[in-house]
Specification:
about 0% helix, disordered N terminus, Porin, about 400 residues, mainly beta, 16-stranded antiparallel barrel, two-stranded parallel ribbon
Length: about 400
């Protein structure tokens, strides 16, 4: 099977409706879900302009990409995003959601990105990415935030991300093919920092630096339609705090641009200053038309915790199974069960959750299959903050 591959401005016309939700069976965790409409429109207004647009409840994320503006191999893009609840923070410590220490955050962002293609004649793209963004956050108390808890100051952050990516994957919940090796740096520089919480018992750092790498492979056997994949993600940091730490937990595939999944765990239950995460999945059809599928996945992670959120043990692991259906036309749905072996709960170790993911692809009949990656619809969780868990 031949795959076409391009640079970071997506050349494919896309219209996707995607939903995802995780629900713990025991305990109460942070709300985990997304709901959004995604559109990628090449040749928007002119042949070298691409519009990327993600619309979620009370949040919009958009980008205009200008192909070849800085040279034959270099594209420039400008983005604007903003809305409610996306910067909210949920404190999870030793398997327990601390409502009295959690709060709401609303925000907006402007960004500029440069995408450079190093090997325009190769099937698998090698791309360099540089993004600079300014992000402003406004914090407010939730209904259960303690009166004695002092919120962090509203702030503006200047964020710089640089990366080198070979390959990529499509922005769908279950890609047929994908391959990536990438390395990244992100610096977060804040205008407001210092102590907050109960009598200033926690700190916002003036600057944090993150370094991570990812390798993944996804493949589908052409005749049998068995789909399998493996990924390895590892990261470290300098001066990480609660807002810049790596947060692991949950199993929704599009909850973040680099999802750090731990089956059975709460969403973002584990906060790490450095980590290594290995995951794998296998799906196979169970009927002659290859519409019904069963899938299994597993993850194991080694972590060093961010200050203030440590717990006994540095290894976390989980497994999950699901059953799904893919229509002959454009939609797909999967219902799954997950178990986290090392998650701390009131009865000891072990946690369970169920999840549902759904996708409707309005452009499915025209899909050519490209290796590409796009930003996450994570900020669409505002829907769930409105209606409750």
């Amino acid at each position: 099977m031949l795959i076409s591959a391009f640079g970071q401005i997506d050349p494919e016309k896309r219209q996707l409706i995607q939903l995802g939700y995780n629900q713990p069976i025991e305990g109460k965790g942070p709300i985990s879900g997304y709901a959004f409409y995604y559109r990628n429109d090449p040749n928007f207004f002119r042949t070298n302009i691409t519009l990327r647009l993600a619309i979620a409840p009370i949040y919009v994320d958009s980008e205009i990409g200008l192909s070849h503006l800085l040279g034959e191999r270099t594209d420039l893009a400008f983005g604007i995003a903003g809305g409610g609840f996306a910067d909210s923070y949920s404190e999870v410590r030793q398997g327990r959601l601390r409502d009295s220490e959690s709060f709401t955050g609303h925000g907006g962002e402007i960004s500029s990105s440069v995408y450079h293609r190093f090997n325009p004649n190769s099937m698998i793209p090698l791309s360099g990415i540089l993004r600079i963004s300014a992000h402003h956050t406004l914090y407010s108390e939730d209904s259960e935030t303690s009166d004695a808890f002092e919120l962090p100051e509203d702030r503006t952050s200047l964020n710089v991300r640089a990366g080198l990516r070979w390959g990529g994957k499509e922005p769908v919940m279950r890609p047929d093919l994908g391959m990536e090796i990438s390395a990244w740096y992100e610096g977060q520089f804040r205008t407001a920092y210092g102590n907050y919480g109960f009598s200033g018992d926690r700190t916002v750092r003036p600057a944090s630096h993150l370094f991570w790498t990812r390798a993944l492979m996804i493949y589908t056997l052409p005749e049998l339609k068995h789909n399998f994949g493996m990924s390895m993600t590892a990261g470290t940091s300098l001066a990480a705090d609660r807002f810049s730490s790596y947060r692991l937990g949950g199993v929704l595939p599009l909850i973040a641009e680099f999802p750090l999944s731990l089956p059975g765990y709460y969403f973002q239950e584990i906060s790490a200053r450095r980590f290594a995460l290995l995951s794998g999945q296998y799906s196979l059809p169970i009927d002659t038309d290859k519409r019904w599928i069963v899938t299994a996945h597993g993850t194991v992670a080694a972590v060093d915790y961010v200050s203030g959120l440590s717990q006994p043990g540095h290894i976390h692991s989980g497994i999950g199974m699901g059953i799904g259906y893919k229509s002959p036309k454009a939609w797909e749905i999967i219902l799954g069960y997950s178990y986290g072996f090392d998650a701390i709960r009131s009865h000891g170790r072990g946690a369970q959750s169920i999840g549902l993911i759904f996708q409707y692809d309005l452009e499915a009949r025209h899909r050519s299959g490209v290796l590409i990656d796009v930003d996450s619809p994570y900020k669409s969780r505002g829907l769930f903050r409105i209606f409750g868990p």
